[in-house]
Amino acid sequence: MKVEITKEQDISPRQDREILELQHLAFPESADFAHQRWYHTPPEDDLWFGVRRDGRLVAGARLLPRIIDAGEKELLIGGVANVCSHPDVRGSGAGKAVMQAVRERFQTEARFDFGLLFCHRDKYGFYARFGWQKIENETIIENPDGTFRRWDHNGVGYIMICPVRMPLEQWPTGKIDLNGPMW
Asked: How much is the average pLDDT of 76-96?
């Protein structure tokens, strides 16, 4: 499957609508996707990955750079977000194609130290197949109102990383500060 990669500044009004509609169908419980293409962090120099079938956008993901503090290190993270597929095509490989394209981008660009994503517990196996590993670091996240909270590892999901420039063994222990909101 062919994956389109578009820089945020090159997103057309048509693509904007298509991404928003896809995310609204994929995440119907999220009020955010009724009016924007992201959860908490508006896009700046993000990349959007998309798969089309018969001219219709059926799968997508977002890749954004973020400098975080992890233990005693400052790391450049490739944050992966908004991974989704249209309910009609789930299980057809469209989501897999998007995640493979993200992984290829990591390998060819190689500017990120690690990839990092947040996922629901029921999606753990999907990401693990692509080499993503769950982490347990205490993680501080900025809320939309400017307050801070800890990520609840016993809640509904996981934080997962994958190696890019650095091997998994170099992932630091200690607290993670996302230096901003969750994406």
From this structure: 94
Cβ-contact 151, 112 below 8 angstroms: no
Instruction: Look at residue 94 in the predicted model and tell me its pLDDT.
Output: 96
Beta strand ranges found along 16-72 (DSSP E): 47-53, 56-70
User: pLDDT, tens digit, for every residue of 98-146?
Assistant: 999 999 999 998 899 999 999 988 999 999 999 999 999 999 988 878 8
* pLDDT tens figures, 18-38: 999 999 898 888 777 777 777
Taking CB atoms within 8 Å and a gap of at least 24, the contacts of 149-156 are 151/118, 156/120, 156/121
The Cα–Cα gap between 74 and 176 comes to: 10
Q: Tell me what percent of the chain is helix, strand and coil, each rounded to the nearest 5.
A: 30, 40, 35
By three-state DSSP, how is residue 151 classified? Answer: coil
Partners of 120 in the β-ladder: 157
Q: What is the largest CA-CA distance in the chain?
A: 48
- The neighbour count for residue 179, using CB atoms within 10 Å, is 14
Across the range 4-16, mean pLDDT stands at: 93
